[in-house]
């Protein structure tokens, strides 16, 4: 199975969630579009030092930490949707987007256009800051409008029972996991959450 990890924005915890999913599913990892360093693959390698994971090479590795369409322009490349070849693997594959769903790859295509290319089920990371209900429901609106298959939501942030409840109520999506702010993001933390989500992914 291919899982596409997206979020309601950037710096939302997609890489942390990807590490948790890789640990839970014994999956491989692919970040098709990386803008800036350190790469998310490198971060995950550090979080899961002893795991037997294949890290597939980024299709576009851009130097500037910016929106991919802008980072590509700076590097004098153009991102082309037809140039993405999804890695073949018999294992589960965790694919991480860049930023949120409506982040441009070029003047026409967006990050969410990679979902059908990847033949993946979506996992949406939703943060819990004030204002995140709106960002989450807008993201969900797009997922539903496009008809993408969604495995579920992962909440990442300080517990907010009403935000979590209304988002699940409005979307009808499954809550796969709740991640709280942790003092240490390390292998131990990843393993703890991987144990919690394992049963929900079958
Ligand atoms: N629950 C958490 N507790 C503590 N730190 C967290 C938590 N979730 C994420 N972080 C930290 O927040 C930062 C951003 O997270 P992360 O890199 O996973 O975001 P991202 O959505 O992958 O960003 P990008 O759009 O650049 O790929 C990282 O330093 C990460 O370790
Ligand atoms: C550089 C950053 N960490 C991500 N890779 C890309 C985030 C793009 C966000 C664009 C936007 O929504 O304004
Ligand atoms: Mg990331």
TrEMBL record:
Pathway: Cofactor biosynthesis; biotin biosynthesis; biotin from 7,8-diaminononanoate: step 1/2
Record keywords: ATP-binding, Biotin biosynthesis, Cytoplasm, Ligase, Magnesium, Metal-binding, Nucleotide-binding
Active site, per annotation: 31
Cell compartments where the protein resides: Cytoplasm
Cofactor(s) required for function per UniProt: Mg(2+)
Highest taxon of source: Bacteria
Positions annotated to bind ATP: 11-16, 40, 96-99
Entry annotated with the keyword Ligase: yes
EC number(s) given by UniProt: 6.3.3.3
Signal peptide start and end residues: none
InterPro entries in UniProt: DTB_synth_BioD, P-loop_NTPase
Subunit structure: Homodimer.
HAMAP family per record: BioD
Family: Belongs to the dethiobiotin synthetase family.
Known function: Catalyzes a mechanistically unusual reaction, the ATP-dependent insertion of CO2 between the N7 and N8 nitrogen atoms of 7,8-diaminopelargonic acid (DAPA, also called 7,8-diammoniononanoate) to form a ureido ring.
Protein name as annotated: ATP-dependent dethiobiotin synthetase BioD
Taxonomic lineage of the native organism: Bacteria, Pseudomonadati, Bacteroidota, Cytophagia, Cytophagales
Chain's gene name: bioD
């Amino acid at each position: 199975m291919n899982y596409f990890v997206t979020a309601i924005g950037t710096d939302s915890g997609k890489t942390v969630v990807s590490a948790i999913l890789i640990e839970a599913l014994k999956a491989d990892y692919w970040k098709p579009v990386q803008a800036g360093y350190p790469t998310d693959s490198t971060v995950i390698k550090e979080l899961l030092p002893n795991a037997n994971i294949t890290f597939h090479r980024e299709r576009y590795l851009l130097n500037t930490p910016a929106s991919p369409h802008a980072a590509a322009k700076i590097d004098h490349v153009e991102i082309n949707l037809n140039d993405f070849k999804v890695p073949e693997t018999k294992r589960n594959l965790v694919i991480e987007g860049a930023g949120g769903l409506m982040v441009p790859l070029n003047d026409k295509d967006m990050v969410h256009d990679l979902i059908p290319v990847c033949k993946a089920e979506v996992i949406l990371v939703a943060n819990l800051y004030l204002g995140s209900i709106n960002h989450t429901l807008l993201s969900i609106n797009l997922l539903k409008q496009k008809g993408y298959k969604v495995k579920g939501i992962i909440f990442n942030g300080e517990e907010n029972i009403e935000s979590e409840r209304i988002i699940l109520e409005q979307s009808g999506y499954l809550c796969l996991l709740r991640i709280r702010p942790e003092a240490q993001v390390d292998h131990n933390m990843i393993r703890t959450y991987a144990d919690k989500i394992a049963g929900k992914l079958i």
